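Q: Hi! Curious about what Ergothioneine biosynthesis protein EgtB looks like structurally. Here's the sequence.
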Amino acid sequence: MTANPPTRLARLRERTRSVLAAYDEATLRRQAHPDLSPLLWHVGHMFFVENYWLAERVFGDTTVTDPWRTLYFPELCTKGERSARLPGPTEMRAWTQDIAAINDGYWARAEHTRHPLLDNGYLLSFVRQHYAQHLETVRMAEAQLALAASPSTSPIVARALDTRFESLAGASVTLGTDHVDAYDNEQPVQTIALAAFAIADAPVTNGQWLAFMNAGGYDDPTLWDPAGWAWRCEHGIDRPQHWQAASTGWRVNDLAGRIGTTSDDPVHGIGWYEARAFAAWAGARLPREAEWEAARRRDKLAATAQVWEWCDDAFAAYPGFSPFPYDEYSLPWFDGAHFVARGASRHTEADVIRPGFRNFYPPTHRHVFAGLRLARDTR
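A: Let's find out. The predicted structure is below.
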């Protein structure tokens, strides 16, 4: 296998451990959102998973994983149970140092070991991406914690919907990822016939979203899918999740107001139902994920890696899909109740930014740094 490049893995580990120094213990144990785990759990989980795949699955050593599996395997411990079962930050800091040293010893052995998970450096890539994805989830939790503070940003000003579209001719396009980094749901690489379409050259902004709100977009059932309208009414949804009303207008609170908060920044804090309603109001639609990927591969998309961009599709298997290295990463979510988000956000680590990467969430998730880009049919 490819020798372990220690610098990137070490950097991801250190970013993970830095969370322990950023907050007091009460904050580290707090569940900031019903769909998110405490920050302290994420730190332990990331180091545990590295050891599980490397020490246990490759070398058969369960010394580390046996005492902790009922806490750090998500299916064995509900999010609400995790806080009370976690060690404190001082113990966690020492434990993660010990686990990193153990793992480094196994990475050194792996350079001279044959195992399917080690072929072409697959496992190292898998582990790096796991750290990367959880680090973004940590930032989601941090953003939710920041909602308790009053935002210090300027109020959002409504902007005209002056969308510029890039037209793409119908063509045969190749989708998916054949690199060792690819997750199972990105494979196999496929070629499909794509009809002509147009896609916006930039995501929808906060100011444009305010224009939708001012036009009564949240109050017009004709813009919404029936299930989305029922959800909007039941939960009183009337703005992006992290917007706060002030006497001078709407303000955006995101990670203590550090980024994404001006009128011209891409909007996020919206679910798939909201994105669909906005697109209907704009006389457009969400891009299909094949369209999004084709446009990205042709360099037709500006302002990517700002927000995850909702696509119109339910998350589904590509023809010829085979689960790897375990069924639960993708297979359970091909249920028609999860929808694709493409691209990346400002909080996404480079390890998972590629044209073929497929993110997926329920349509009601609004804490996931997701926004939208418009598309439309062309003749």
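A: A fun detail: DSSP finds eleven helices and eleven strands in the chain.
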